[in-house]
Task: structure prediction
Amino acid sequence: MGSLAESPFGVSPQLECRLTPPGGRVISLKSPFLFRRIPWKNLSKETATNLCAAVRQLGSAIAVPISMMEQLPAAATPLRIAQIWSDHSPDLAELEMSDLIELNFCSEKSAHAEENKQYAGAESVVSWPIDVLDTNSLVHRVAMLREVTEHKIPIGFAIPAGNVQADVALALACQVDFVVLTWSPSLFDDKAGSSSTISVADALSEVRLAKSNYSANGGGDELKVIIDAPLGSVEDFPKLFALGAHAWCGQSAIDALLRQPQAPQPNIGYSGMLSSYSASKPATSIQPQLLERLQTYVKSLEYVVARAGKVRPSELANNLLCTIDA
Result:
């Protein structure tokens, strides 16, 4: 991925998102992307491998099933996100094979139901229950997770963008390394009792308030904020960082590519990777298309950072750019 070291601005932006667990090595996302929700069971082996290879080339992380991870060639092995749900948790061996751990406050079944609402015949609103009794219980859970992973793996929360300030304050109290704010068309907001309509800009404003209050009480501010919401345009990508985000979940870009007509290929899903596989007709690789699309986002961010005379996106002033909505 090219830099702007030789550009007229004379600045070489550093775009990586660095996650530093208490006792482990720094996990650096060379490109500020995460990929959390991929429909693996609908993908062929070749498409899945190409997708992982693209994420590796970007230097990003993806939530990939461990059964698939074990089958990938070394050149296609990306940073891996392990996801813990209220109804499903990976075993210790799987956690140790991961680079990031994401703790979700809902069941995996509920999450899939929520995602499927965009399709015909979807069910009614699904709530997102936090399955711990209080802050102390959650702090204890995170501490136990730190201990079993020897404090070496970054841990974060995935939280629906409803009560953002309170939820980020909770994440700060638990001293996690990152938080993913997620949006959904029918997201349940337990404060208002209705669907959330909070914009990305307003959510990040609440994040800044929570961090400011935490710092005022003597707390440190190492929490990285990742946004999981579709972007209206490439120009919206730099605005996320000017508003305080550190990375973006880019699976909406992947989804757009997967919806494009592809060459016929067996729809075996990732479970079929455990058996022999041969395609009657080579599939069109999405790897170059995905890289081109996401590198367009990166270059827009590089340009804005360099134009502002900064080195890191976090140095951008939020009044330099217009706000964006989810």
